[in-house]
TrEMBL record:
Residue ranges of domain D-alanyl-D-alanine carboxypeptidase-like core in the record: 70-156
Gene3D superfamilies: 3.30.1380.10
InterPro entries cross-referenced by the UniProt entry: DD-CPase-like, VanY-like_core_dom, Zn_M74/Hedgehog-like
GO BP of this protein: proteolysis
Domain of life where this protein originates: Bacteria
CDD domains associated with the record: Peptidase_M15_like
Alphabetized GO MF terms: peptidase activity
Designated name of the protein: Peptidase M15
């Protein structure tokens, strides 16, 4: 299962109302390392069209819901995979897909604050110029069981888990039914 980090920064443990939604977005972005933390659960409960800056204030643009804004090939692959998962009774949904450059910048800046350096932050979040969420080529999924199902079955549609430290992050990374490439330790190795 490999939760590379189970430690949640102290600032993230305080469930203040103002911070809660932004923290949930960060959890969806993979900034919260603990797989089974209450914060991660909160990310799945949040309305998908909630729009927030890193500080928790309303942003001008909504965070895309579901497959909105994704590369059409990725959206089609995910929709087919999700239909099969649901047919098998497995819960699976996108917790974070396409992000605007501004949304990614807010996540990156929050990551810098949380982890203290670009080198440490890059394990969990990339700047807008490098993030595959900004190009519509990545999805974060949940809950844990659904992500595990996608890890086990996603290659039938070309979908692969990419990083050892992010069980939720998938990309179109192989041909349908071909094996997935070896996972990278984390996003900083990209
Ligand atoms: Zn991701």
């Amino acid at each position: 299962m490999g939760t590379a980090s189970t430690e949640i920064p102290a600032t993230r443990r305080v469930p203040g109302a103002r911070r809660a939604a932004a923290v949930a977005v960060l959890a969806g972005a993979g900034l919260v390392g603990g797989s089974f933390s209450a914060v991660t659960v909160a990310a799945q409960d949040i309305s998908p069209d909630v729009s927030l800056t890193a500080a928790g204030a309303p942003a001008a643009k909504s965070i895309a819901a579901g497959t909105d804004g994704l590369d059409p090939s990725l959206a089609a692959a995910y929709n087919s995979a999700a239909a099969e998962a649901h047919a098998q009774g497995v819960s699976l949904s996108i917790t974070s897909g396409y992000r605007t450059p501004a949304e990614q910048e807010a996540l990156w800046e929050d990551g810098l604050q949380t982890y203290g350096s670009p080198e440490a932050a890059r394990r969990w979040v990339l700047p807008p110029s490098e993030s595959t969420h900004v190009t519509g080529q990545a999805i974060d999924v949940g809950p844990r069981e659904g992500a595990q199902w996608l890890e086990d079955n996603g290659n039938h549609w070309g979908l692969c888990r990419m990083y050892d430290n992010e069980w939720w992050h998938f990309e179109l990374a192989t041909a349908p039914d071909a094996p997935c490439p070896a996972r990278l330790p984390d996003a900083s190795d990209r």
